[in-house]
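Lab notebook: predicted structure, single chain.

Context: the supervisor wants predicted structures on file for every construct in the current expression panel, including those that have not yet been purified. This is the next one on the list. No modifications to the sequence; it matches the entry in the shared construct table.
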Amino acid sequence: MSIENALWLAGIVIEVAVVGLLLYKRIWRVLPIFSAYCAWDLLSNAGNLGIRYYYIDIYRTVYLIETVVDSLLVFGVLIEIGWSVLRPIRSHLPRASWLGIGLFLVICGSLIWPFTGIHTLANLPYEIEFIVRIQQTTSVLRILLFLLMAGCSQLLSIGWRDRELQVATGLGFYSLVSLAAAMLRTHQTSLAQYGHLNQIVVASYVISLLYWALAFAQKEAARREFTPKMEQFLLALAGNARAARLAMATSSDEDSQSGRHS
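Prediction complete. Output recorded below exactly as produced.
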């Protein structure tokens, strides 16, 4: 058995433990999309091992579909983490405020997309190009979320024992290694070097899973409240965003009415 396959098998075993902890500790109630992502990842990784050996002719198509589903779930996880961080003031926010987090991520992703795969997509099929671009875009988004949460942890009243930061840390570490490996592949000179980079990426995935398993096995710290100044700032920010949306909607209605009158 190759080192890469051994690492994948170890990852699947640890991921079973992670999914079990999500259920046993009832973390799925707080982070249902992340729990669904872990369950999906477990099933897809287990299925991939069989497809790579017995159905290699359809592997590219299956991998493309899995990449799209995986990226959509990751996008949902990022929204969920951001919305969960605002838990202390969510009762004061409009129910649709989570859409603002999603819009922010869409804007960031659209800015990142043109810069993905610049040095790696020459003469590659469209499906491979799409896979590389979407993987790199979601990787950068995960890294940015981790850096934002870690850098603003004091302001957001979260620490390393909070589930949100634990999830962001695992995603950020794996994404950072994956992105670094993608950049190094543009300079690799042999198939052996390419294989070693893949092994490093898989190892980082296993380390993230192991970190989650150890973190989720521990009792979560009680969530701290925001400082009054931070709470006022976030509520004011949400209020300004809502006012801007209402102003745009009102302006659109007035324009349509003036068009009918004319």
